Amino acid sequence: MPCAQLLGDSQALEVVAMHSEVETSLRKRELVQDFQPSGLTRRIPIFNGRIVVVDDGCPKVAGANAPAFTTFVFGRGAFALGLDTTDPEDMHETDRNALAHESVLVSRRRFILHPRGVRWIGTPASTSGPSNAELSTPTNWVKVYFDKNIRIVAIRHNI
């Protein structure tokens, strides 16, 4: 896959996420094969040696002659899972009802799925965190890894 060259010698791309119309087009050309590992009842679609994830959330933009799609290719470790600790005082709360012999502990945990290699530098308008519009604003992010170490590649194309 030519997009792997964007990562130089770090060409470990394993998963491709595409719009359902792209997947249908590739299947019609017999470029997507299904693989069924032993012990699984579900078949796994494979394109060019990579696992296929079909998601209509992948961008589709209307064009003059045909729509333009964005397909994403991911490598192992493209995302990190973290815990939001921006407000430690809000993470735990206790209460006690002495007459009923009850103690209550409330633990609030906010998990964050984060693309590795970029850092959020924006300021959210809400105290509950950034909105989807704020997250999709490029100026709210700064690259902190070299390009070839960010294991996410976006491919804009027509079918």
Instruction: Tally the beta strands.
Output: 13
Radius of gyration: 21 Å
By helix and strand content, what is the structural category? mainly beta
Overall pLDDT level: 87
Low-confidence stretches: none
Tertiary shape? extended
- Summed up, the domain count is 1
Portion in strands = 35-45%
What is the helix fraction of residues, given as a range? under 10%
Order of helices and strands: EHEEEEEEEEEEHEE
User: Gap between N and C termini, in Å?
Assistant: 16 Å
Number of helices, counting only DSSP H or I runs of 4 residues or more: 2
**Biggest sheet: strands, sense, closure?**
7 strands, mixed
Folded structure, characterized:
The chain has 159 residues and is mostly beta strands. The chain has one domain. It is built from two helices and 13 strands. The strands form four sheets. Strands 1, 2, 3, 4, 5, 6 and 13 form a seven-stranded mixed sheet that branches. Strand 5 and strand 6 form a beta hairpin.
Entry keywords:
159 residues, mainly beta, 7-stranded mixed β-sheet, two-stranded antiparallel ribbon, extended
